[in-house]
# Entry
Amino acid sequence: MDLTVSIILGIIIAATPLVFAAIGELTVEKSGVLNLGVEGMMIVGAIAGFAGTIESGSFTAGIIAAIIAGAMMGLLFAFLTQTLLANQVATGLALTMFGLGIAALWGQGYSGKSLPTFPKFAVPGLSDLPIIGPILFGQDALVYLSIALVLGVSWFFARTRNGLVVRAIGENHEAANAIGYGVVRYRYLALMFSGGCSGLGGAYLSIVQTPLWVENMTAGRGWIALALVVFAAWRPMRVLLGAYLFGGITILQLHSQGLGVDIEPQILSMLPYLATIIVLVIISRDKVKAKLNAPACLGQTFYAAS
Amino acid sequence: MSLMKHSKMKYSKPIVGALAALALAVGAASALAADKVKVGFVYVGPIGDHGWSYQHHEGLKALKAKFGDKIETTHVEKVSEGPDAERVIQQLAAKGHKIIFTTSFGYMNPTLKVAKRFPKVMFEHSTGFKRAKNVSTYNIRFYEGRYVAGIIAGKMTKSNTIGYIASFPIPEVVMGINAAYLGAKSVNPNVKFKVIWVSTWFDPGKEADAAKALTDQGADVLFQHTDSPAAMKLAEQKGKFAIGQASNMGAFGPKAQLTALVNNWGPYYIKRVQAVMDGTWKSGDTWGGIDSGMLKFAAWNKAIPADVVKLAEAARDQISSGKLHPFTGPMKKQDGTMFLKAGEKISDRALSGMNFYVEGLDGKLSK
# Structure
């Protein structure tokens, strides 16, 4: 039973960076912008969180630094694509390379430094319950925050006026502009929010999951987050499901190897990708609904004059 | 040998080309003195990887310390193993470097190609198996270190369970697992190995996840054949032990690190550059073990009792003097077939193609 609990705890840790990055990207894509720079924003968040925590001695300050650094990356992307009208795909790729480079530069003095263990946020009384105690009530604060963010984004798009405006902008930015919504302003905000989320995801990796700093440590998680958004058909709760499925199967396959399950490791390594895609594609297979969910203006440059 | 340690694309990024060109330009600008021997290095990772490329750069530093201003060094980091590599090597050769060290398995064919075009430049390719008149190969017998570390691990484990984070099922990694197991088994007949393949050389998050899975399943000493210090860090947090890989990872696990297998390329680099200076350089293949000084151990952890240190040092010294070979018969494969007769030592050829577990290891090894 203890092993089951620790497997589940491992799954939550592995999934959380993906939840943060993917829910941010979802918000941006709903506003009609495709930002391929998630990996770059994550890695900058990872070093900002790590360096911020070391310099200030406070996890809170480190996390805030990661959010700010990620948001700055988002702001940079917004300036390039929304103000200077650069191509989004190219800018996103450049943002990833820039992020990896600047994080490596910034992080030079930090590899080899150590952080204390990130504290768990135990709910008094409840966290001592068997099995569900540590799983539901014994997580660190960032895990709760990641779930809250998904619920919040889901509520934002489904229930708020601003959420509706963002969706409208993603569907048809010219029409939204014609009736007076500030397309560029909304997109700036969405991009900064997404950057902050990605930064948090990176910081989770560098200050909770590993916790250490090494160059290129995000190792492709930004790209997985991007894929999750598409396969989840731009639905927040499915993004959450996809991230947990991916993290879950990753951890389960590692454990199954340790327990001596007789399956080729290459196949096991492939499973998280395969299973996540299959499940998300199946639950999102209704083509009409999927089309309705996909932002029609995704990736298109918006010319305010037109 | 098919040592595919670095047949990987872990740092393949388009920006690398631009960086490489810039680095070369800087290197060239400062390389005006004509009588100095110019030495070039190509790294696959960033120097800051705290592992493979970092250790090669330490070797470069040893060269500089030895020869001072008699040599001029240029290094290009984060060169991906493809067309980029060929261009970078070509530029180094064209810029008058006398000897060029290409330090990743995937540079094998690019190195040979460029070597053909520059017959007067000497090339040294690490971990490869193809040579030419002006191309040597060199590598370290990592398995010797793993055997010694296995002895320590076998003695230090209380749960009799040792965790092993492996990258890809290639001979280099497989012989390491076998050697570590044989070392542990030689001092602890009840020891069990749990091997987790993570299918990557470098993914700190996944390496940490694997390390956590292993400790959750009862492992109290961890080995790794991946590049990041994440497993060491996790062992430190959980109060377990671990064996460092490639570099001294003591900073990440001051209490956890029992020892680390440290790649010490310096002596080899010094020898080869000296040979270039003396005009005695010849193509050859070097597979240096403990005796060559190319494989070092980080300081033993203070938690290791004196008698265990003695055992480990005895094994180290016997391997070094050639008295002991980790793969000495009688020895069976996992499936029970004999592959070494009593007293027989494995040949380098058989070792470098090793694709099976030895008897006693659990789990299936994919081919």
About this structure: Residues 79 and 303 of chain B are 40 Å apart (CA to CA). Chain B has two domains: 15-140, 143-262+298-351.
